[in-house]
Amino acid sequence: MNLMDIYLQRYQLTRYDVFQRSGISQQTLYSANKKGATSYSGKVLIALGQATGDTAGEVLDALLRIEREGVLLQILTFEELKQAVDEHCPRFLVVGPFLEAIKAYKKSQLSEEARLGFDLGTGGTGGVLEYLLNQLWIILDKDPDKVSLRLQDKVMKLYDIKLLNKQTAELSLKSLSY
After folding, report:
1. Which of 25, 132, 159, 178 is most buried, judging by how many CB atoms fall within 10 Å of its CB?
2. pTM across the whole model
3. 91: domain range?
4. What domain of life does the native source organism fall in (predicted)?
């Protein structure tokens, strides 16, 4: 759902900021972020209001509007992308300077038909071998920034990438398209 993250983006805040300003646990915020707006507890709505300056009612109204309009989370930085992928965010937009990396991922990603043909042609062992080679590449790579390689690997495995225009790409979990 990620309604909370989308709401907080408007204030240039994160769940960690809410935790710091209100004292509500990060686990409570993480759990609420996975739910629909009507499932948010009063405690969470009050904490969000403390962080943003809105009343709990205004927070709930904004969350309901985001949910109704189908607004997607916008990813602007590497850290935001890492968090969205690690939390298996179902759908989100990538905009800004990090978009070029997503375009490169897209170019190297096989189409679904090609992926199925590869798996069929190798009797299913090709995917396993590909995974093992990717992991070996990450281990042997001398690049100190292996986090970006692991993130690229996760994005390629978990997400379909759709380029919407020159400034925006939409990523959606592959499991949602089956």
Report:
1. 159
2. 0.73
3. 74-173
4. Bacteria
